[in-house]
């Protein structure tokens, strides 16, 4: 067992109380990610139910989404998953500078994703397509549901991107402050895992909304 | 007393702070699992009392037909708040957050949980959720009136403060998830040397299985609640039939959580029972592995039966009989436990102390609750009884008669360990008796009324129910008196109770090997476990230890 006491690296604890357990920390993170998957699972379930109920209208509505922006965002997010992995690899190889660089790039990609998303949503809203709008309420139920789900699912995903950015910024701060070091980088790894999950969920959202037409 | 030496030598966790603060901050910012467990104890007990008071008020309204003390809308908000408080603030977090926090690490020989700071965060997330419920009472629109199930479409249409109140439930769910993650990791990572899975006390097993349900089920209610909030705010249509949505989908999502949630409520209680019975029967538990495995079985099968709450909501016939069948299957592992407990007591030399009396009361009440559950799980009878007082009686027997009584049992069982003092036995035992009488008056009458056709969540009733309603209300007073005596005794004993030794009951799990109250780090040296958890031959060695 990896229950070794590392005395004195946290001063608000009495020495014997401090323990560091990297495996435990990662186990905890995996369990948390599992709950996130289940959270989105509920929505995927709703999507499946309604897609089954209104196959034609879902197809028609999906054609209105901008596949170009969707694809671009997919590429951006996939790349960001790579950079965060590189950042972890860099700190393992004791290259702090590269690690910081890669992590910053990840944040930049995340912001790019959100900017794209913003324009995409705004374009739709300008066309009067948003929940409760007259334009949308005039359409058949299947389309109302499609766009409803579109806003809710990409919106919740967007919220996760946003939270991810905050987490990554904290990691950046820890890296700079030497709180994340070549022999203590579990925090960064866990943040990376979270970021991969955000990416992974998008990988499912993308075909469901943009590609199946 | 022989333990005097131990007590002087080591400061206990009350005397020694885990952080750099002293006074109140040493509690509010503590990362010690015992202190956090106690903070939960005080907070949760507070909400329990609030919930009880609301329950009594409802019963008072129902003492006579027609309007008695409140109007119909107030009644609607009260049964909603009562349900929300009792479910989300009391019974779901209750045992794991209080006794799980306090005793799970000790019972596996650990110094703390795996993530002490996360543990503190869970507590504050819980408090935040409770505060949100409180705020929702006063915002414009008034307190929520949908019932704790928040059924669509009413919960979208109601002009009361639904969003805030259910967001509170979301936040409370978050706390529950974090606690679950913490416990699973703790059990996997921090068991003392020699503490294999099959040497873990059964309370640990039960809490462990519960933690998995918390992790797997809670996110589903989380998303369901978020969808309702979004639905109310933006009119998205996901559940709203007017926009093509499906209210039944809401019910599925709701019960996929809320059925497993009843196992979050009951499993830890079963774990406590499996601790108390061997201790007071002085016998190894019968069928240790069967009990441990049945916890996991309940956790697993419990996922497959949610739709028995929806027999009358318009599912297909096939779905209905399948869910009815599955419901019967989940009764099996619960039955296994009850038989094992009884077998343990058989030929044991029983010492009927207060915790044991609570357990006896539990076995009676829980069996009634469980058997009537089968009546509700049967498709044909449920169609007659759905949404009547029969259901209300059933779930109070299971939740209150089951988990509630075990909450009290646990409180009495571990009281000396947590506070280092004994309570007074006589009033404690009187409280058990009064509770049992009051409880059955209060709720058994509801079985009869339900069977006769009295619907639940009704503010008024026909004259033929008047006598039974009256008996029920009088029962609620006796019950309240019992709770009052019990709590009064415990609170008085905090200061005036006789000092307790390390092992007042002759228990053998690890918490009885350390002083009462435990020292800050629980164990001076992490113990090496060599015995089976309920091996009473250790008692002799333990006497020599102290
Ligand atoms: C002195 C104690 C209690 C009294 C007098 C009491 C009384 C009541 C009454 C009168 C109702 C309304 C029934 C209806 O019209 O449908 C009710 C509902 C309920 N009670 Fe209790 N109860 C008590 C304790 C508890 C406890 C300990 C729990 C949980 C552990 C609990 C959980 C519930 C729930 C979930 C509901 C359903 C609320 C709803 O319909 O939305 N109660 N109770
Ligand atoms: Cu159920």
Automatic annotation (TrEMBL), chain A:
UniProt subcellular location: Cell membrane; Membrane
Transmembrane segments: 27-50, 71-91, 97-115, 149-173, 193-212
Gene3D superfamilies in alphabetical order: Cytochrome c oxidase, subunit III, four-helix bundle (1.20.120.80)
Keyword entries, A-Z: Membrane, Transmembrane, Transmembrane helix
Keyword Transcription: no
Residue ranges occupied by any Heme-copper oxidase subunit III family profile domain in the UniProt entry: 1-213
Pfam families for this protein: COX3
Keyword Transmembrane found: yes
InterPro entries with a match to the protein in the record: Cyt_c/ubiquinol_Oxase_su3 (IPR024791), Cyt_c_oxidase-like_su3 (IPR000298), Cyt_c_oxidase_su3-like_sf (IPR035973), Cyt_c_oxidase_su3_a-hlx (IPR013833)
GO cellular component, as recorded: plasma membrane
CDD domains registered for this protein in UniProt: NorE_like
A GO term, aspect molecular function: cytochrome-c oxidase activity
Biological processes per GO annotation: aerobic electron transport chain
Topology within the bilayer: Multi-pass membrane protein
Matching PANTHER family: CYTOCHROME C OXIDASE SUBUNIT III, NITRIC OXIDE REDUCTASE SUBUNIT E
Family the entry assigns: Belongs to the cytochrome c oxidase subunit 3 family.
Name of the molecule in the record: Cytochrome c oxidase subunit III
Automatic annotation (TrEMBL), chain B:
Enzyme Commission code: 7.1.1.9
Pathway noted in the entry: Energy metabolism; oxidative phosphorylation
Record localization: Cell membrane; Membrane
Membrane-crossing residue ranges in chain numbering: 38-58, 78-103, 123-142, 162-184, 205-230, 250-273, 285-306, 321-343, 355-375, 395-415, 427-454, 474-492
A molecular function GO annotation: metal ion binding
Keyword terms: Cell membrane, Copper, Electron transport, Heme, Iron, Membrane, Metal-binding, Respiratory chain, Translocase, Transmembrane, Transmembrane helix, Transport
Organism per entry: Melioribacter roseus (strain DSM 23840 / JCM 17771 / VKM B-2668 / P3M-2)
Similarity field: Belongs to the heme-copper respiratory oxidase family.
Gene Ontology CC: plasma membrane
Function of the protein: Cytochrome c oxidase is the component of the respiratory chain that catalyzes the reduction of oxygen to water. Subunits 1-3 form the functional core of the enzyme complex. CO I is the catalytic subunit of the enzyme. Electrons originating in cytochrome c are transferred via the copper A center of subunit 2 and heme A of subunit 1 to the bimetallic center formed by heme A3 and copper B.
Broad class of where this protein is predominantly found: membrane
Entry-linked InterPro entries: Cyt_c_oxase-like_su1_dom, Cyt_c_oxase-like_su1_sf, Cyt_C_Oxase_1, Cyt_c_Oxase_su1_BS, Cyt_c_oxidase_su1_bac
Catalytic activity: 4 Fe(II)-[cytochrome c] + O2 + 8 H(+)(in) = 4 Fe(III)-[cytochrome c] + 2 H2O + 4 H(+)(out)
Protein name: Cytochrome c oxidase subunit 1
Residue ranges annotated for the Cytochrome oxidase subunit I profile domain, each copy included: 21-530
Pfam annotation, one family: COX1
Top-rank EC class of the record's enzyme: translocase
GO biological process: electron transport coupled proton transport; oxidative phosphorylation; respiratory electron transport chain
Membrane topology: Multi-pass membrane protein
PANTHER family (alphabetical): CYTOCHROME C OXIDASE SUBUNIT 1 (PTHR10422:SF18)
């Amino acid at each position: 067992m990896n229950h070794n006491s590392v005395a004195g690296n946290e001063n608000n604890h009495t020495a014997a109380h401090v323990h560091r357990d990297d495996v435990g920390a990662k186990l905890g993170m995996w369990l948390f990610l599992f709950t996130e998957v289940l959270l989105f699972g509920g929505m995927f379930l709703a999507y499946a139910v309604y897609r089954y109920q209104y196959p034609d209208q879902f197809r028609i509505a999906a054609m209105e989404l901008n596949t170009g922006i969707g694809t671009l965002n997919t590429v951006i997010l996939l790349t960001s998953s790579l950079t965060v992995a590189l950042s972890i690899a860099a700190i393992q190889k004791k290259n702090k500078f590269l690690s910081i660089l890669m992590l910053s790039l990840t944040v930049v990609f995340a912001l790019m994703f959100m900017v794209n998303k913003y324009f995409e949503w705004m374009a739709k809203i300008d066309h009067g397509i948003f929940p409760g709008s007259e334009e949308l309420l005039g359409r058949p139920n299947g389309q109302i549901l499609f766009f409803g789900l579109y806003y809710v699912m990409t919106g919740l995903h967007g919220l996760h991107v946003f939270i991810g950015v905050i987490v990554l910024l904290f990691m950046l701060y820890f890296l700079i402050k030497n709180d994340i070091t070549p022999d203590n980088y579990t925090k960064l790894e866990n943040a990376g895992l979270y970021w991969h999950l955000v990416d992974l969920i998008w990988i499912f959202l993308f075909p469901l909304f943009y590609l199946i037409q | 007393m022989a333990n005097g030496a131990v007590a002087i030598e080591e400061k206990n966790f009350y005397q020694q702070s885990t952080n750099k603060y002293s006074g109140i901050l040493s509690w509010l910012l503590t990362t010690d699992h015992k202190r956090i467990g106690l903070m939960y104890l005080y907070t949760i007990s507070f909400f329990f009392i609030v919930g009880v008071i609301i329950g009594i008020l409802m019963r008072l309204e129902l003492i006579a037909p027609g309007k008695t003390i409140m109007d119909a809308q107030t009644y609607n908000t009260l049964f909603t708040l009562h349900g929300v408080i009792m479910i989300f603030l009391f019974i779901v977090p209750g045992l794991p957050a209080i006794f799980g926090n306090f005793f799970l690490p000790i019972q596996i020989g650990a110094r703390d949980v795996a993530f002490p700071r996360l543990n503190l965060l869970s507590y504050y997330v819980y408090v935040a959720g409770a505060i949100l419920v409180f705020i929702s009472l006063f915002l414009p629109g008034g307190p929520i009136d949908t019932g704790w199930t928040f059924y669509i479409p009413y919960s979208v249409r109601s002009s009361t403060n639904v969003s805030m109140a259910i967001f509170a439930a979301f936040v409370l769910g978050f706390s529950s998830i974090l606690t679950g993650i913490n416990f699973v990791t703790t059990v996997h990572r921090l068991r003392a040397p020699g503490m294999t899975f099959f040497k873990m006390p059964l309370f640990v097993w039960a809490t462990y299985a519960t933690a998995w349900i918390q992790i797997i089920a809670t996110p589903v209610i989380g998303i369901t609640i978020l969808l309702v909030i979004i639905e109310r705010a933006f009119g998205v249509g996901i559940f709203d039939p007017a926009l093509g949505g499906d209210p039944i989908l809401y019910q599925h999502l709701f019960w996929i959580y809320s059925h497993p949630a009843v196992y979050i409520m009951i499993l830890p209680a079963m774990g406590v029972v499996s601790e108390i019975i061997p201790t007071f029967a002085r016998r190894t538990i019968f069928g240790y592995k069967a009990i441990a495995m049945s916890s996991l079985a309940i956790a697993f099968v419990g996922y497959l039966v949610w739709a028995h709450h929806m027999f009358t909501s318009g599912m297909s016939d096939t779905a209905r009989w399948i869910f009815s069948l599955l419901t019967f299957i989940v009764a099996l592992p619960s039955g296994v436990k009850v038989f094992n407990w009884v077998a343990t007591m058989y030929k044991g030399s029983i010492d009927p102390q207060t915790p044991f009396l609570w357990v006896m009361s539990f076995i009676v009440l829980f069996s009634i609750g469980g058997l009537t559950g089968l009546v509700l799980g049967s498709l044909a009878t449920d169609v007659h009884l759905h949404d009547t007082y029969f259901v209300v009686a059933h779930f109070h027997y299971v939740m209150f008669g089951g988990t509630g009584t075990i909450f009290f049992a646990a409180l009495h069982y571990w009281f000396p360990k947590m506070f280092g003092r004994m309570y007074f036995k006589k009033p404690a035992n009187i409280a058990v008796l009064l509770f049992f009488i009051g409880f059955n008056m209060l709720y058994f009458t509801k079985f009869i009324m339900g069977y006769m056709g009295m619907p639940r969540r009704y503010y008024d009733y026909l004259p033929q129910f008047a006598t039974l309603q009256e008996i029920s209300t009088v029962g609620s007073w006796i019950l309240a008196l019992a709770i009052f005596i019990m709590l009064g005794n415990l609170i008085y004993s905090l200061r005036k109770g006789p000092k307790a030794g390390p092992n007042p009951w002759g228990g053998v799990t690890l918490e009885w090997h350390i002083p009462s109250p435990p020292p800050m780090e629980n164990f001076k040296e992490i113990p090496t476990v060599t015995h089976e958890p309920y091996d009473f031959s250790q008692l002799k060695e333990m006497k020599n230890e102290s």
